[in-house]
Amino acid sequence: MSTQTSSSASPTRAGNGRGKIVLLLLAAAVVAAGGLFGFHRLRFALSHEETDDAEVDGDISPVLPRVNGYVAQIFVKENQRVEAGQPLLAIDPKELDLKVAAAEAAVQSADSTVHSAEAALANARAAEAVARANVVTARVTRDKAAADLARDSRLFQTNAISASQLSDTRAASDEAAARFTALQRQAEAAAAQIVAAQAQLQAARDGVTQRRSDLDYARLQRSYATVTAPIAGVISRKEVELGQFVQVGQTLMSVASDRDVWLVANYKETQIARIRPGQPVEFTVDGYRSTPFHGRVESLSGATGARFALLPPDNASGNFVKVTQRIPVRIAVASSDAAPVLRPGMSVDVAVDIRN
User: What is the model's pTM?
Assistant: First the structure.
């Protein structure tokens, strides 16, 4: 009996010894793995500045109408992707069409006024030419009458003609001189009419320019009846329905860019001493934990985030409590067609490699 008991106890002690060895080996492996992980984590922490106070940012453009009116058509739905310039909705254009038609009629009327002014200028120039010709004829007649008067005056002194004949000659000379003066005044008036006609023509042409500008503006307003996407992205916060009356500047929906995005990492002021533009960045997004992303530091803000708050802190009033401030760092995202879509507002963990 004692021999059997001793034999059965020996394997048990041997099994316990092997179990302890296995446990010691496992413990040693765990300690080694932990030490290796800790070493790599410490080395990473010494060469990187990390923060979880970061998010994806991007352009979010509001869609605003430029004319008042009732919504006649809507071409998109919530969360639909659109390209820049794609029609989003249409405003009833009837009133705008009437304004275009009125502007076109005004242009035609202004063109007619120009034609009339051109004809008036041509008539004034013709009348001025006739008046100048009459002045030339009257000058010849006046000079001849003056010569006849001088001749008859000499003849009268020699009694070759009578006083009555001299009187007739003098009357003819005076009449010719008066007619010349009158025609000269008419020629001057005709020249003044040309100046007035030229001014009227210029005013008519200016009117055409103004009417055409009004027509261009009316057509531009008509083009605003179709509201288009300002950027490429995803329709968000759609707040417009068919038949709704919209006004200029009213936000109807927004387009969130899904391509041109970047990161804003709010680093503590104690972390930015060695952060510089151009340094490589590694980051993970809460929505895609298994996907690593890369980028580079683009720029650092010119002031802390608190300075841009609605009510910036005023440390000169009341008791002062020092609070570590944060400085926004803009990070450009490395583009990759295979990477998941990053949406503005997503939470990010960022690590900047400060070794460079």
Answer: 0.69
